[in-house]
Amino acid sequence: MKKSLMALGSLLMLGGVASAQKVAFEEYNLDNGLHVILHQDKSAPVIITSVMYHVGSKDENPERTGFAHFFEHLLFEGTENIKRGDWFKIVTANGGNNNANTSDDRTYYYEVFPSNNLELSLWMESERLMHPVINQIGVDTQNEVVKEEKRLRMDNQPYGNLMTEVKKNMFKVHPYRWSTIGSMEHLDAATLGEFQAFNKKFYIPNNAVLVVAGDFDTDQAKKWIKQYFGAIPKGTPITRQKFEEQPITQAFKATYEDPNVQLPMVVTAYRTPSMKTKDARVLDMVSAILSDGKSSRMYKKIVDTKKMALQIGAVNIAQEDYGLYVIYGIPMQGFTSADIMKEADQEIVKLQTDLISEKEFQKLQNQIENRYVSANSNVEGIAENLSSFYLLYGDVNLINTEIDIYRSITREDIREAARKYLNPNQRLTLDYIGAKDKAQN
Questions:
Q1: What is the sign of the dihedral through the CA atoms of 330, 314, 363 and 21?
Q2: CA–CA distance from 257 to each of 127, 381, 433 (Å)?
Q3: Any idea where the Peptidase M16 N-terminal domain is (predicted)?
Q4: Which residue, 243, 275, 282, 399, has fewest beta-carbon neighbours within 10 Å?
Q5: Which CATH architecture has domain 252-440?
Q6: How far apart are CA 377 and CA 107, in angstroms?
Q7: Which helix (H) or strand (E) holds 188?
């Protein structure tokens, strides 16, 4: 499930420079196209079995949005050999836990078990892929679950629809323009046959990566993987349509009223390149300079020193096809949205004009190194990173080498990225207001 914009803007801070150990892995393909990645770690008697499918909200029919996220729920309903309602019972009875999450680009399922339950976890994930039961009872049940999730996480949550509104305005033709949770009206209108067709199209071994990470015997794991996944038929290869957005060359504005909001928020958003690019990593560093921690430029000036904003942040949201660079702020009483965005713009202009100091650059490099080490500090994080680097980036070894891309970024690169992507004529300004603010306007 999606984290809030606030959480996205807060990067993990650790003291000092940590050193990363190389993540060892083995990868291969089954005959049906399923990609398999094994990472052995015997430091604790735990195993993680995960499957990531290359299907997200961007793969949906514009008249049937929400399908990818819906399946994240639906495929826990049961299989031909796991009775409805028994999935979670089996996991907990064997000392495990499990979850799933969906993004615009992919859907991810995983189980964490004591290491003596590897065979069980492989069987369960193979069941999800080979024998899912998709019937009207399950669809109706999960439809209510998803509606309740939308009410709790978005409709009744302050700023809960913020990213939905940003995406809707920033993308005109690309499927990133709708929210991951999609339209409840679309889900209500969908037939059982449409759900079954979606499963048949996207939940195929040649559209997935299986990762086993933790304490296991490699030869035994390979035998079980072949036993449980090898017989699953290869699916029809998926042809994906490419969507190209026209560059934003003129600033534009939008307003959204949220009855849950007591304090208005202002957001500026810029469209940025794919997460696969070097520029996407440079923009991560720009975010760290501007709003990573209380000593960051925007926070220190706008929140701490001038006390103009209750909160200010800048975050680079990188995705497979395009990204978004989002700056947001909540004005303190006596200040307007325009006041705090003027201050934020001044900080961007400084980045576009002057090289950051060597001292600040060294601090930035330390932050990036620490974040990299933290991302691979436990076996669960490693499993998800191995999946993502294979499925979305096309290079599993980026788990070891992406840090070298960050290390190659120079102060000049930071200045050029700010000049290229963060200009006033390239952005949306969204006033996210409450009913009180609308009445005052």
A1: positive
A2: 44, 37, 5
A3: 36-177
A4: 243
A5: 2-Layer Sandwich (3.30)
A6: 22
A7: helix 184-189
